[in-house]
Amino acid sequence: MNTLTHKVPRAQRIVNKKGTEHAWTAGRTIGQIVLTLVALSIAIPTIWIIIASFKDKGEFYGSPWTLPEGVHWQNYVDAFTDAHLGLYFGTSVIVTTLSMILVLVIALPCAYVLARFSFPGKRLLQLAIQAGLFINVNYIIVPIFLMLVDADKWLLQFFDAGFFIDNIFVLSLVYAATSLPFTVFLLQDYFATIPKAYEEAAMIDGASQTTIMVRIFFPMAMPAISMSMLFNFLCYWNDYIISMTLMTGDNRTVQVGLLNLMQTQKAATNYGRLYAGMVIVMIPVLIFYAIVQKKLLEASNMGGVK
To answer: At the top level of its lineage, which domain of life is listed (predicted)?
Structure first.
């Protein structure tokens, strides 16, 4: 009787364990299927655009799924030179690089101080940064534009030309300013999770606060820094509204240039050059993502008090 009593719960546990394993396997299979479908929905259009970028003008009148008869590199040459996409590409590279440097130079020390020190007004500053997360820059770009126009009108009283409108450095400053709340908020939370043992060990060795911040906390925060850099890079590189509003001359960013290319090539029915321009715009994003992802994985494996 006692043996049977002990065997029944054990049998139930075995059945429950097998049921849990089957449920876990089924859930994992469904998850893999969903991820595969999502990956295919992204990969197939990307591959199709790359293939279409090598087609000649006459090949688009047939089936859109046919492979190109040859590799027409001239589409890329025409998009990069004749459509001035090379000029726009260089402008975007300069603006994106300057914006990322500015936001990191400002956000890193600010996030470190907010995470590791206590001072009067700290809570108010944190609330202001958190409030900035809810402000969509697209809603305030018109007031920013009017402020810059008024500043240029004031400068024209003393100089022959303005400075704030159609200036890549001002555009970089606007990009950096609008992305500061997110960057500071993300880095601050990560800095706060780092144990004080690292800081105390460095102070015992005679390291200053600046040395601790630069040589200890910044390398340890590379996962958060890489994530913020990736997010900011995508925002800067893919922006259209801010660039279209503040850059009123011929020196536009690559997204504005791509739209002009789309309008021109649609009218000329030269879709090969259009898709070549899309590929040119996509390449820096893919390269930067691959680099940051590698750094993110390397940094996530670092640790230990030395």
So the answer is: Bacteria
Please state, in angstroms and rounded to a whole number, the distance separating the CA atoms of residues 123 and 104: 22
Nearest CA among 193, 23, 194 for reference residue 202: 194
Mind listing the pLDDT tens digit for each residue in 8-21? Answer: 465 555 555 555 65
- Determine the Cα angle at 194 with ends 192 and 197, to 5°: 125
Do 209 and 128 form a contact (C-beta atoms < 8 A)? no
Positive or negative, the Cα torsion across 5, 11, 15, 18? positive
Looking at the chain, list the stretches that DSSP marks H as alpha helix, in order from N- to C-terminal side: 2-52, 74-77, 85-116, 122-132, 137-155, 168-193, 196-204, 209-212, 218-220, 222-237, 241-246, 254-268, 271-300
Asked if CATH classification 2.60.40.420 holds for the domain at 74-300, the reply, yes or no, is no
Tens-digit pLDDT profile for residues 58-75? 777 777 777 787 788 888
Amino acid at 120: P
